# Entry
Amino acid sequence: MARVSVWLLILLTALALPALAAVEVRQFDDPVLEQRYHDLTATLRCPKCQNQSIGDSDSPIAGDMRERVYQQLQQGRSDKEILDFMVHRFGDYVLYNPRLEGRTLLLWGLPAALVVLGLVLVILLVRARRHVAARGLSEAERARLDALVNRPGALHDTVHQDAAHHDSAHHERNE
# Structure
């Protein structure tokens, strides 16, 4: 039993070694520099992993990118310089929030334009319905209505229909 425990412990240790090797420890003398490092690694997207920052990714390319961010911070480069370097090397894809440029203007402006277009469309529809509701009958429509109402027997037909409806409703209640 003791041998099995020893072998199990050796096996678990061997399986845990790769996980321990993946942990990177960066030494920063300045807490502001360390915060910038964490912010930058959270801002940059891993080119290999889908929707994962280089700070969260275990891929080799993300490790390389973290190392480059660390080196450039140690060299005194600004965040903009580091981001520009990464975009130049890996493309705009590495930025979670693309920059506002001529080629990304549609990406940034389309949602706002669609909201404005929707509001204009709603306003036009409401105004059109109000106009239709407020508009009275035209002379031709009024003359046709008067002709239908005033035709011979129209009043008698209406009274007769109302009386028949009243009698049928009264008859149903009594049953």
Q: What stands out?
A: The mean pLDDT is 76. The CA atoms of residues 138 and 158 lie 25 Å apart. The two ends are 91 Å apart (CA to CA).
